[in-house]
Amino acid sequence: MSEQPLWTLQLDRSEVDELAGRVDPEAPLAGVRFAVKDNIDLAGHPTTAACPALATKPAGSSATAVRLLLEAGAVPVGKTNLDQFATGLVGTRSPYGACHSVASPAHVSGGSSSGSAVAVAGGAVPLALATDTAGSGRVPAAFNGIVGSSPPAGSSRTPASCPRWPTSTASPRSPARSRRPAPRSPPSPGPTRTTPGRARCRPGRQPESPHGCAW
């Protein structure tokens, strides 16, 4: 699978071996290698969401799904490519390169969890974490002939993952008010929204940065 841009980051062999050496041999997933989509935090490594400009600050802790796998004895080997900021269903929107279906270089891998799906389908790992808002995990799984599972919302805490790219906003409607749509006002760019360690963005705007990232 070396010809496919699966990874945004691969752990050093020495780190993988060290992690494997700590595993309880009786753990249910003892020694099983797994990959992590690069919008999910893995402690000690940056979370870029396929934006190289964000590869500067390592995550202070692992996401719940990662932590549970580690506790079960699984061993991470790297972070996988994706449609940048998880905004796509084809797997081609990444400055790290576009993955393709394991069945055909002429066909897309599906996205946004392209690297995770191709890593499993191509045999790089038997298990990979992905995210799925509207098919981002199940679509690439289907395109590559593997199983993608999307657990029910709220079944796992997700504080250590990138927030979704802001594309729309909604306001609660008071039941005491009329159901007629309110008059529209001119759109406002809104204030700059900043999250520590994340890119700065204005909702609804995606100009290209010099780093190949949509801001």
UniProtKB/TrEMBL annotation:
Residues 21-153 form the Amidase domain. Gene3D superfamilies: Amidase signature (AS) domain. It comes from the Bacteria. Residues 163-175 have a biased composition (Low complexity). Pfam families: Amidase (PF01425). Signal peptide: none annotated. PANTHER family: GLUTAMYL-TRNA(GLN) AMIDOTRANSFERASE, TRANSAMIDASE. This is Amidase domain-containing protein. It comes from Phytohabitans suffuscus.
